[in-house]
Amino acid sequence: MIDKLRKYNQQHLLNYAKDLSEEEYKNLIEEIEAIDFDLVTKLYKDTKNSAELLNADKGEITPLPCVDKASISKEEYNNYYNLGISLMKQGKYAALTMAGGQGTRLGYSGPKGSYFLGEPINKSLFQIQCQRLAARNKELGCIIPWYIMTSRENDLQTKQFFRDNDYFGYDKNSIMFFKQGFLPMLLEDGRIVMTDKKTIKQGSDGHGGVFKAAIDSGAVADMKRRGVEWIFVGGIDNILVRLDDPLFVGYLAANNFRLGGKSLIKRDPYEKAGVFCKRGGRPCVIEYTEISDEMAQATDEQGKYLYGDLHILCNMFNIGVFDDMANCGLPYHVAHKKTDYIDEHGNLIKPDAPNAYKYEAFMFDAFEYYENMGILRVKREEEFAPIKNKEGQDSPQSATELYIACEINK
After folding, report:
1. Do residues 234 and 317 lie in contact, with contact meaning Cβ atoms separated by under 8 Å?
2. What is the pLDDT along the chain (410 residues), one digit of tens a residue?
3. I need a surface site. Which of 27, 170, 296, 344 has the fewest CB within 10 A?
């Protein structure tokens, strides 16, 4: 182990091994053994020019056509919907929920999916999604398999939460939990961050890590065994997410798209979310920080934003896309962060400015590997009520209001 750490200039990870208990030492060794040091080394080498690597030579940015759900004719709507229902009944559909987050920003200690919304909903976020799937199962006469991506921090708590609630009545053999990947944070000199003598600073590898995690865990193999061909992927914090939408999968299948996403029209030119577009003739999502004022404000002849379709993390993939992403891999984005760490003398250092790098893969980078994808534009008030903040916009209160209004207007 020491020789391996010397090879990668990370021998400081064991500097304080003699000060640890047997259990602490064992846990530290397990964390070290799980680190892909070749990947970590490459990420650090690429850090200085990461922005250039991600954006270089990808071509002109142009609008990406989207289909507005409201504009679909009744005949087309019925055809898409019925095709989706047929695929579901044949067992070719699965739902995947990304639920690796904690409820820290909500002032809640525990997995975000176990966060409980009080009156008048009186359900946890997991229960809301579970009951939505269960209602579809009743209509179909079969069970949609449900895959839940947890994290190292909340995996055990999430599984226990489901056991304590008897899986909310769902068939427990049709639910599979798997853990998201993680990467260590690196100091500016390339050393892996230690927050104390026994703890390595690790972070999730981003929602783009869902492809690798689903394959490495055996989730994709389980899908293939069941005959699944289409996988909806969404987050736990959107309480209006339609993880059981026959129209969406039917629309993609009928038009021979291998992947798709749902979009919303942005509230204003500068809403803080990525937008669908094309870059070099291929579909992609451009972050709001990368859009010029001219692009943000650009409109067509009807006064609609040319770059106004927001990516809301509601995506559908043919199962082959998961295999493709395992083979080609996604690029990692780097963020310069401020984090506490211990130095070579065991002192806790609290910096005043960013001093470390965090790496994440983004799901939407997968889009650019394909010539086209289907984008279905939906209404915000019907399908998007995220819970991200304790108060104000995108809070439990705002999401509850949208949820109740949507239930009333069904």
Report:
1. no
2. 899 999 999 999 999 999 999 999 999 999 999 999 999 999 999 886 665 555 556 788 899 999 999 999 999 999 999 999 999 999 999 999 999 999 999 999 999 999 999 999 999 999 999 999 999 999 999 999 999 999 989 999 999 999 999 999 999 999 999 999 999 999 999 999 999 999 999 989 999 999 999 999 999 999 999 999 999 999 999 999 999 999 999 999 999 999 999 999 998 988 888 999 999 999 999 888 778 889 889 998 888 899 999 999 999 999 999 999 987 878 898 989 999 999 988 899 999 999 999 999 999 999 999 999 999 999 999 999 999 999 999 999 999 999 999 887 76
3. 344
Q: Quick one: fold of 35-408?
A: Spore Coat Polysaccharide Biosynthesis Protein SpsA; Chain A (3.90.550)
Q: Where exactly are the structural domains of the chain?
A: 35-408
Backbone angles phi, psi at 111, to 5 degrees: -55, 140
Tokens of 190: 């390339």
Distance CA 197, CA 398 (A): 42
What is the 3 state secondary structure string of the chain? CHHHHHHCCCHHHHCCHHHCCHHHHHHHHHHHHCCCHHHHHHHHHHHCCHHHHHHCCCCCEECCCCEEHHHCCHHHHHHHHHHHHHHHHCCCEEEEEECCCECHHHCCCCEHHHCEECCCCCEEHHHHHHHHHHHHHHHHCCCCCEEEEECCCCHHHHHHHHHHCHHHHCCHHHEEEEECCEEECEECCCCECEEECCEECEEECCHHHHHHHHHHCCHHHHHHHHCCCEEEEEECCECCCCCCCHHHHHHHHHCCCCEEEEEEECCCCCCCCCEEEEECCEEEEECHHHCCHHHHHCECCCCCECCCEEEEEEEEEEHHHHHHHHHHCCCEEEEEECCCEECCCCCEECCCCCCEEEEEECHHHHHHHCCCCEEEECCHHHHCCECCCCCCCCCHHHHHHHHHHHHHCC
Report the alpha-carbon distance of residue 131 to residue 275 in Å, rounded: 30
**Phi and psi dihedrals of 358, rounded to 5?**
-115, 140
Locate tokens 């509850």: which residue? 400
- Give CA–CA dist 106/97, Å, rounded: 20
What are the structure tokens assigned to 141, written together? 């006469």
